[in-house]
Write a structure and sequence with these properties.
alpha+beta; Alpha-Beta Plaits; Arc Repressor Mutant, subunit A; 2 domains; 3-stranded antiparallel beta sheet; 21% strand
């Protein structure tokens, strides 16, 4: 005669152990490997004669209810062959590639074949080139843009044929008129700038 199956589902492993202990003590049944479903849910499975399974499930339900962790219970009498095979099969193990943290297809093939050429190689960092360098390329004007105060003043004067006053140049570079006057004197000594009345011109 085909065995029947009894199920008691609990939330928490302790409740499952308590229910399993009560089930095997209450009737002549055999424990089938328990199932961890996830989110702390555990299903205890027993098999035996129909009457024994009913008595075992009743005992398991009472035991699980003692700590308030019972979720559901059920009995399958005379299960179909495929159902029985599903119940008796052990839970699937994780693939070897996942244990080792390999997820890519190439890594899994290398693990299975074991060929030297298939072994995973660390990704080589490509050197940055003109086409791969992040950000936009600087224009020629940006590359030649003056940076120091004397260069800024000289560049500005070359763009101003009508010249600029001391105050205008001071506002341009953000320095005091005294500091700008010293810079202008230096440029005049180098022959790059000349002063005509109150304005300065590039030579």
């Amino acid at each position: 005669m085909k065995a029947s199956y009894g199920f008691v589902e609990t939330k928490g492993f302790v409740a499952a152990i308590l229910a399993a202990d009560a089930m095997v003590k209450a009737a002549q049944v055999e424990l089938v490997p328990y199932r961890k479903i996830g989110a702390a849910y555990v299903t205890v499975v027993v098999k035996g004669e129909l009457g024994a399974c009913q008595a075992a499930v009743d005992a398991g339900v009472r035991a699980a209810e003692q700590i308030g962790e019972l979720v559901s219970y059920h009995i399958i009498a005379n299960p179909y062959d495929d159902t029985e095979n599903q119940l008796e099969s052990s839970p699937r193990k994780k693939p070897e590639s996942r244990k080792k943290g390999l997820t890519r297809k190439k890594d899994q093939e290398a693990l299975l074949t074991g060929k030297p050429e298939d072994k995973v190689k660390p990704e080589e960092k490509r050197p940055l080139t003109r086409t791969t360098r992040p950000g936009r390329r600087k224009s020629r004007a940006e590359k030649t843009k003056p940076s120091s105060p004397d260069q800024i003043i000289l560049h500005h004067l070359t763009q101003q044929p009508e010249g600029s006053t001391l105050n205008e140049l001071s506002n341009l570079v953000g320095l005091s008129t005294k500091e700008v006057r010293l810079i202008l004197k230096k440029l005049m000594d180098q022959g790059k700038v000349e002063k005509i009345q109150q304005k300065y011109f590039a030579m």
